[in-house]
Give the backbone structure.
Amino acid sequence: MPVRTIDAHFTLTTPAFVGGAGDGSAKPAFLRVPTIMGLVRFWWRALAWREVAAMPDPIAELGRGEARLFGAAARDDGTGGRSGGQGAVLARLVDGPAQRSFPTVGPADRTFAYGAETKEGLAYLAGQGLKGRGSLPAGEEFTLRLICRPKASEHDLEQIIRAIRCLGLVGGIGARNRRGFGSLALRKIVDSAGKHEWLGPRCVEEYRNDLETLLAGHRANVDVPFTAFSNVTQLWLAKAPANSDVADWHEAQGFSFQYFRSKGLGGMLGGKAARSILPGDPIYPDIDWFDQIAMSPPTLLPRAPVRAVFGLPHNYRSGTRRFQKLNNRGRPIMRNGEPVMVNHQAAVTAVVPAAATGGAKSDRRASPLFLHLHQMTDPSTNQEEIAAVWLLMPAVFLPPATGNGPGQVEIKPNNMASGKRNFSPNWSIVYEFFQSLATRHDATRIIP
């Protein structure tokens, strides 16, 4: 009897930074099956929460389901038996891209990702973590082949395929994939048994319909301990103007994100006029919060910045206010007879107890806000269509810092002692950002 296979054909819509961290020269970029299947697991968990949310022990139930589908290390099950072992499918990478090197990203060399001078919006989305990373360029194609084991039921395969579709409609791969890099477009699914055939969207309208179908019915309670679809998930779609390209639309989304979150320097932001941030603006409290740190004497307010909800760590820096840099004895550091002056800065990081990470030290909290770029060709017009999708999946933001208390962030100014502050996410600031996308890019909400 022939072995049943299911092939998922992907295209990279945007460059994927899937190489190792650099040491002065970029490491080759490459795809690995464990990386791809790790992403399939992530989206399976995000989709599966609604099935287990009402159960007495939803996390344990989720773990059992994940082990059945994707496999787990064999271990004693506590009843004298063994659990774990191989999952319902084996995975292989076929027709994958060759390894590639890519120029190092550095202060003087901002030609990365799209092979052109990086604009401010893309640089803002890229952050500081792509230096020395190898990348695969947009347009690369690969096929993930699932080899179905005899024990795999049709229901098992349907769950895995739904996760693959989710990855190929709203997900990405590699560094900064939550900011649109490494966006994956699933083109088709081919089942040798003919039961799970699927053709990817060819225009924005089909894309919208596929998203609505895939994500319908995810109304589980928001109080979920990991990133998953729930009753407060929001998904917004912005269609690019005609004759746009992916790089330009990616840049436009990045600039809009920066425009919403920042007041710029000297009234300018990326060579354009920054917006005025006045009392009543959703991010004004954060501007005022940092102003207190940059004033003399500096003050660490009892609250944390609301923008921490976009992910941690994140940084603040004044372009105009400076202070004398001091040595360990509290005396000014002098250079050529003049005191060394530095800009006021502050970093905000997560407080994550070791127990929450299995002993590993962490001061990060991944963003619950995802950006995905999707490119299609409309067969009726033979025209390229591009969509940007912003997906918010609220969940428990930080584990309790102690006992059953609230989560905390640590604020680390460079001009005074650091301090910890309780933090509860206020999702309304993200909703305000979505409204700004509706104004700037005619974005519309898909999931009600």
About this structure: Residues 5-200 form one domain. Confidence is low (pLDDT under 50) at residues 99-111.
